[in-house]
Amino acid sequence: MLIDLHTHGKLSKQSDFSLDYFHEMMQEAKLNGVDAVALTEHFNTKNYEAIYEGLDSAFPYNGHYYEAHGVRVFPGIEVDIRETGHILLIGKKEEILAIRAELEPYTSKENFIPFAQLLKLADTYHLLKIGGHPFRDSTPLHQLNRELLIQLDALDLNAKDLYKQGVEVNRQKLEPFAEELGLPIVAGSDTHQCLQYGSVVNRFNEPIHTVEDLKQAIKSRRYEIEISAALDIKVKASVMLKKVLKQLKGEPPSREELEEVYTS
User: Fold this and answer.
1) What whole-number distance in Å separates Cα of residue 6 and Cα of residue 88?
2) What's the Cα-to-Cα distance from 209 to each of 55, 76, 166, 172, 187, rounded to whole Å?
3) How many CB atoms lie within 10 A of CB 106?
4) How far apart are the first and last CA of the chain?
5) DSSP state, 111?
6) In the prediction, which pLDDT does 53 show?
7) Cα(71)–Cα(75) distance, rounded to whole angstroms?
8) Residue 259: burial class (beta carbons within 10 Å; 0-12, 13-18, 19+)
9) Do the bridges between strand 154-158 and strand 128-132 make them parallel or antiparallel, or are there none, so unpaired?
10) Beta bridge mates, 71
11) Cα–Cα nearest to 193, from 154, 138, 249
């Protein structure tokens, strides 16, 4: 079972959630062999709750995941922390929406939630906690308190960083760090649109029906990470398309997006 544990359902934080766009995303994910995704949308994206209102109107939800064009969609959220860094939280819809509501006072950059406080909050729910792209230049995690980092369930091997830094360079940073912390590594495409699906996935050796299934399989390391031979072209094409689509919507590209386009 192929699962992508870091994905987005919107083009950008400023974009409105579009069901037509999401239908296309899930259809493309399926065509790339992806069986399930964690929808880890940014917690301070525009109208976060509208995402789940849209999903509820279009897809069945069984208490653990949505079924969208043959792809299981596990609810999630990507949270900025005060110290710099992103934490992915994955769980049941009601838990994700509840934690988003509790994070409302912390959505502005000058008032992001401290890491320790987020961990404490997350532990009041039954969530999978993943440290997002620990060695990304703009939002690193590796510099944080080790006693806090070891409370995570896993670290993110991120397609964008594999592309920008090079596969071997990024893995040579991440793998010793994860081993030092005693944490497993899981893969996420970090896609905001369809071309990036399949760039990097987790192949689980058993069916995954719940987030608890995910947590146990990750903890026991009953999965393998697969990096596509086409990762570079998938990510570069994705970044370029995202830049064009944002321009058509009147949204300027970020500095990170401009840098990624010209990384070989």
Assistant:
1) 8
2) 18, 15, 33, 32, 18
3) 19
4) 31
5) G
6) 98
7) 13
8) middle
9) parallel
10) 68
11) 249
